[in-house]
User: Fold this.
Amino acid sequence: MPDLSAFPITRKWPAQHPDRIQLYSLPTPNGVKVSIMLEETGLPYEPHLVSFDTDDQLSPEFLSLNPNNKIPAILDPQGPGGKPLALFESGAILLYLADKSGKLIPADPARRYETIQWVMFQMGGIGPMFGQLGFFHKFAGKDYEDKRPRDRYAAESRRLLKVLEQRLEGRAWIMGDEYTIADIATLPWVRNLVGFYEAGDLVGFKDFVNVRRVLDAFVQRPAVVTGLDTPHRG
Ligand SMILES: N[C@@H](CCC(=O)N[C@@H](CS)C(=O)NCC(=O)O)C(=O)O
Assistant:
C-alpha cells in the first residue's frame, strides 16, 4: 500500500484509500473539470472537500500542495516511475490524467496539440474572462456604479463565445467526433456562465446555437452528472 504520510495535505484530509488518486476540490467550474475527468476515465479516486466557507484552501496543509491556494489539486500515489505525484492547475491535471489513462486526448500528435491548444484557450481566455464577468455581474462587483468593467468582460465573454460557436459549427465536440479534455475544460465554464452567474442575457447566449447544442449533450453524460456533484458539498 503506498505511503502518503510525507504529504502534509493528508493530515487534514486523511486517505482512506491511499492506493487511489486523492482529489482535493469543490464543485466549482474549475473543480468539476477534474471530477468529470476522473469519472469519464474510470481511474479510481478518493474525493476530499476543500470548503471555502472555512477557508480550507488557505490552510498550511492545502498550501503545502498548492501554494496558489486554489482548487482543484490531486495527489497520485502511482505517478511517473511509480512515485507519488502532487499536481495543481486544472489544465495540467487534465493533461496528466489523459496521458495516464490513454483516454480523452487524441493519439495523433497534430491532433493532440490541437486539443491542448483548445485547453489553453479555456485556461487563458474563457476561465479568467467568464470569472471576472461573474464578479462584476453577480457578486461583489454588481453594486459598483461604474458599469464599464462589467461591460468590458461581457463583451470579451461574448467574443470568446463567438470563437467557440464558430469552432463547433459542423462538429459534435470541440475536436469533432472525438470528445476530449478540451470539452471537459470548457463546458463547465459555459454552464456556469448561464447558470450560476445568470449572465446568459448579458452575453446574448441564445445566439450561440452550436454552443447550446454541445452544452446540452455534455450535461447529459452520466460522468458529467456525477462529476458536477463531486466532492459532494454535504
Ligand atoms: N487556474 C486555476 C484556477 C483555479 C481557481 O480559480 N479555483 C478557484 C475556484 S473555481 C479557487 O480555488 N478559489 C479560491 C480562492 O481564490 O481562494 C485552475 O484552473 O486550476
